[in-house]
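Data availability (excerpt). The following record was deposited with the supplementary files.
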Amino acid sequence: MCRCSESARERYARRLSAPLLDRFDIAIRVDRLQVEELLADTPAETTAAVADRVEEARRRAGTRGVEANADLSAPKLNAQAPMTRPAATVLERQMRTGALSARGYYRVHRLARTVADLDGDREVIEEEHIQEALLLRSQRHLLLGIEYR
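Predicted structure:
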């Protein structure tokens, strides 16, 4: 966590432009586990299972002619990563409110394709994939230790 004063963090945050932050696709905050969570007898997904899902998602991206979905061009993305109407509506709403730039739109679309691949969904991006991608992108300011109010 940043040890700068609140005013210094706010001054720094004002200098960051939306186009710069738009280049971060994912930010995941990982908090320290609570003792109860650590000692709970709840089985977690194994590393091997996660690795298998990632390998399968990369294989699917390979069938689209790219190493990763992040490499899909806009025309290929539209052709090879179709969305349901509700999913497209969510993105359209984000664009109309100014919460998402054109660059952000395509980044969310690509990220949602990856989320769908990791879920094992082969064809169409669903609304929940878009929502998860938006959530992952909305936290990218956390990478820089900045809290917006």
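Summary of structural features: The chain has eight helices and no strands.
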